[in-house]
């Protein structure tokens, strides 16, 4: 086992043998979602997010931080490859907000080829991300621990959808064209620096739970969902409460010399948002 896999397995709480099969893929997918939160703090601090293997390992594994799709699926791809899976990254166009025209490719996801079948894995789409791989097969409803999904195919284009109450909501479009590191670097830079990017205007965080629940955070508003219903909602009163919640409920590391952050640094970030007038106190 490689040193990276040893550290990664400790990070996500995996202690079993890692075999190249669908059972391992499913188990690792859910454990990753449960242990490494989706978050965009580095966009807000602001810090440049590096996508090389060492930088991602230092941040998401060693420093116990989270990240967004380019980081999350970068780490997951490396882990799967070092186990022995045939895996590569794809890029998608996010349409969750129903844009009037197709946006650029700013979402990283994974294609896994296993025993003659192709699977989509994705640990980096925030609150609606997959928590299990799904078959690359059109027009079949596929269950995951956190909801029902399906794929629609339009020629070379695929569309991932999730069931939202009684209708299907599209998440992103993608194809199977081979991408390169430069493509991820471009999408990452655009997501972090484009003035209208939603990652620049809100603190966003999500952690899925093994029991089918999930925790979400938008600025100072925290919600715990279970079976699709909010069972706990908190409007945090100040930055001190927010700083504590990030650690206690999301398991976020804050003490690393390079990737950690202080309560004062968080206060500076939150003071920029009008959603909480006392954010800096």
TrEMBL record:
One Pfam family assigned to this protein is Acetyltransf_2
| Top-level EC class | transferase
Parts of the chain that traverse the membrane: none
Superkingdom of origin: Bacteria
List the keywords (alphabetical): Acyltransferase, Transferase
Q: Name one GO molecular function term.
A: arylamine N-acetyltransferase activity
Keyword Chaperone annotated: no
* EC number(s) reported in the record: 2.3.1.118
The UniProt similarity line reads: Belongs to the arylamine N-acetyltransferase family.
PANTHER family noted in UniProt: ARYLAMINE N-ACETYLTRANSFERASE 4-RELATED (PTHR11786:SF0), N-HYDROXYARYLAMINE O-ACETYLTRANSFERASE (PTHR11786)
Name used for this protein in its record: N-hydroxyarylamine O-acetyltransferase
Supply the source organism for this entry: Citrobacter arsenatis
Identify the gene encoding this protein.
nhoA
């Amino acid at each position: 086992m490689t040193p990276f896999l040893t550290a990664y397995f400790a990070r996500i709480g995996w202690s079993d043998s890692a075999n190249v099969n669908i059972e391992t893929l499913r188990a690792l997918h859910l454990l990753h979602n449960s242990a490494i939160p989706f978050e965009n703090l580095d966009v807000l601090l602001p810090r440049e997010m590096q996508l090389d293997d060492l930088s991602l390992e230092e941040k998401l594994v060693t420093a116990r931080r989270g990240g967004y799709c380019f980081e999350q699926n970068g780490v997951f791809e490396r882990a799967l490859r070092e186990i022995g899976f045939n895996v590569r990254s794809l890029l998608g166009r996010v349409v969750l907000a129903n844009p009037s025209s197709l946006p650029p490719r700013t979402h990283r996801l994974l294609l896994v080829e296993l025993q003659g079948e192709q699977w989509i894995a994705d640990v980096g789409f925030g609150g609606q991300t997959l928590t299990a791989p799904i078959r690359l097969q059109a027009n079949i409803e596929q269950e995951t621990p956190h909801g029902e999904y399906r794929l629609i195919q339009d020629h070379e284009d695929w569309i991932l959808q999730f069931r939202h109450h009684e209708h299907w909501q599209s998440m992103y479009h993608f194809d199977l064209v081979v991408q390169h590191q430069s493509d991820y670097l471009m999408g990452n830079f655009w997501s972090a620096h484009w003035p209208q990017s939603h990652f620049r205007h809100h603190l966003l965080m999500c952690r899925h739970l093994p029991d089918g629940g999930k925790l979400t955070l938008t600025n100072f508003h925290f919600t715990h969902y279970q079976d699709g219903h909010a069972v706990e909602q908190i409007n945090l009163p100040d930055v001190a409460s927010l700083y504590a919640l990030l650690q206690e409920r999301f398991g976020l590391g804050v003490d690393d010399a390079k990737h950690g952050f202080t309560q004062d640094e968080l206060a500076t970030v939150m003071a920029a948002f009008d959603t909480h007038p006392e954010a800096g106190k």
